[in-house]
Structure prediction request, 998 residues.
Amino acid sequence: MIFNDWLPALIVISSLVTGVVIFFLEEERARLRMGLNLAGAIIKLVMVGVLLWGVFHDGVYEMGFSMGTNLRFVLRADSLSVLFVTLSSLLWFVTTIYAVGYMEGSRNRSRFFGVFSLCVSATTGIAMAGNLLTFLVFYEILTLSTYPLVVHKGTQEALRVGRIYLGYTLGGGMLLLVTIIWLQSIVGPVDFQEVGALAAHASEYRFELTAIFAMFIVGLGVKSALFPLHSWLPMAMVAPAPVSALLHAVAVVKAGVFGIVRVVYDVFGIGFANELGVLTPLSWAAAFTIIYGSMRALFQEDLKRRLAFSTVSQVSYIVLGTSVFGPLATLGGLAHLVHQGLMKITLFFCAGTFAETLGVHKVNEMDGVGKRMPWTTSAFTVAALGMIGLPPLAGFYSKWYLGLGALEAGRGELIGVLLGSSLLNAMYFLPIVYAVWFKKRRDPWPQERKHKGFEAPWMLVIPPVVTAASVILVGVFANSSFSPLQWAQLIVERIYAP
Amino acid sequence: MNPEFLSWIPWLVVFPLMGAIVTFTFPRIATWAGLFTGVLILVATVGLVAQTLAYGANTYSLGGWGAPLGIDFRVDGLSAWMLVISAVVGACVSLYAIGYFPPGSKASDEEKNHKRRYFWPLWMFLWAGLNGLFLSNDIFNLYITLEMVGFSAVALVALANSRNALTAAMRYLLVGLMGSLFFLLGVAFLYGTYGTLDLTLLGERSRANMATWVAISLMTAGLIVKTAAFPLHFWLPPAHSNAPTPVSALLSALVTKGPFYILLRLWFFSFASLDTTYADYLFGALGAMGLIWGAAHALRQSRLKLLVAYSTVAQLGYLFLVFPLARAEETGFTAWTGVLLFLAAHALAKTAMFMAAGNILQALGHDTISRLAGISRLLPKSVFALALAGVSLMGLPPSGGFIGKWLLLDAAISQGRWWIVIAVLCGTALAIGYVVRVIRFAFEDPIDLPQVKSVSAVMEWTALATALLASLMALASSLPLDLITIDAPAHVWPEVGVGP
Prediction:
């Protein structure tokens, strides 16, 4: 059916068109803009639903065309794509509502929302890229379209950070470009395959392929904030809260990690990568980043910066899961791709809502927030506990399967890393949870905006509450058939198929 | 094989020449006559491309007298592709010129009217010269068309009528003349040695002797000056940046490509049998240095149009990488395609960028980069065009520049020429630097916006449309493959190549 072949392309195009139309909209047309935004997000969700159903039953959707000799543009929806596409389009919908509320009354909103949609379009493109060239195209578009969001405030500080951000990410992109071309010049065009594409070339090019793997990890490691390439991430906190939420949960950081997942499973193949001996160094890099990020988070006074370092740490769980050979570790890593997104976006939404309504930016200003804003604070608490790994919340399942996977692969030392990191997570989240609920408020709020009736505008409260609820739901219903965990199970079965 | 029906070749020169005469004689209707000519040229180009695809390379003998007696025009894949580029860019620039040279109604608008009066005939004449250049199969004709292009370009720069522009135009004239004289000297040598001016015949007769080498060296030196390849690029930035905006776009996008095209003709077609190992390395080295040097200087400019002009020096450097890369057996054709796509992408992106820069200059009354704050709110379309064009110049997706750069890198890596890879990466990093620098200031968001003059809608939308063409080219980059393989040089694609 023609519609089916075009489905991946339509999903990418839907938010692209929305973005372009919104970009050229008059600044004052706030209602129309919001209508377009939501319509685009809903249409996309419906199509993603169809895709989800189709991939569950039939396997793979693919379409592509030639851009020249050996240059094929391929969009391909397999089970891994669907995991990421579903996450990003759901969270886009929620973030759009949040962003409309957050940006109310500020300047340059047409530019903001236009670029915002482009950014989502790029993310879905990354999810459904069928080969390395297509992946790179969307990966770079994502870099370029997030820049206007990062510098949106137009202040000197934002512009300075924007330059650093571009320096890091475009540098990584250039390395990726050379790596991909080098790989193609050795083995020809590489399409993503669920068993990996390179095993056939193993014996001849061991050295080159090892070097290429390392270059891939460094190139992709910039966006996935692997130590020591992570410094841009805490700085990028100058962006408006919805942007930070999107950047951390689904867009930039996830794109980098998703790339690593693709390279390990679908380019090299986990078996071949393991045999090549490149997985162990990667797992140590991830383990170090996990501990390092948590340590740094512990010492951040600024709430958003603490969350940013927490992202550095949490995202590396996914890399860790990818770098340990065995189905259970893979399962934990892939499930965490979704779980971390849900939890982190909740935390950022809440941080943004606190800052907007009460002017609270610092951790030590948060005493007694729970009484003033119970809904938002509850959402924050759920997500924080999920991050620590409390059962039956989402984060618990990721860590559980990661731990089992480490044991299965005979990497008992990684259990120590997981436990240590959980301990650190508890050390930097629990004091906040304690302070917001049990400490008494003494000083007035730094900059309170009174709001009739509810604790804050509903557009700033409902999104975090919804995502927090999902953190509970995906945990409690982890065994129902369309939960992230079960979907990850489906991917794992296809990856480790005999 | 020649088409059995009427060839489109002569019309590509006749239409713009007629356009020049009409726009000169009837200045009142100059704008519309110019646009109409543009449409005619587009139609003729489409017709010619269709003919070339159907019948392969074909020759048109002027007055029915073929070479060696008469003068031949010839179209193959390369010429057709260059004609397509100049038709598209020419059409975009013509549209832009409607807004840039508006009809003045009052008597005080004399200067405005003067500019409009002379822009159209000169531009049409230049277009005729360019089309003739891409179609000539005769080195003396190449010289004549080169001069047509050169003289009209100088006059167009002088139209800006400022002190800087006149100085730049004078320098441009002298340098251009010197380049042409070198070329002419080479032509004389060749005629004296081989007794023919026809490129095909020269290809058959040429031998590696002293006279040939002297001739081709002289011609190459002249052409390098005219292309503004490093280190003979010094005249380009002032001329390109001080000209009126549509002229800047034409100069950077098309005029520099004319002499480069002749270099390709000479080295890859007529004199392909020479041992070019050292010459190729020289070209490659000049290109690599040029792309770094130009980008580094672009990074240091304080004026936007100068930055864009220096970026042209850098982008021309990439084109010269074709000489070492396209000779290889297997990946030569990759590099050849890469450079031809890159050339088209640069033409479109640079046109868009000059247009956007011109809009900003007109709106603010200056183009000092550090004072662009707030411009992204005032001229969002132009800034978007600038950014999109910048993406192509940086060689990032989605853009024609990305595909071109990908293919070049592909060839360089496959051939193990890592020095080219490193040069290209340095150039890319610098390009990112200079584009981001402009965008950064444009995104600054002051409370008080600067006062601006209005910019006509045509100018804003044309800039945006041209930038979009440069981006979307990436999607269609497999389409020209069929065209440019037609009679591609023997070295770069043995299966379809011409010659012995």
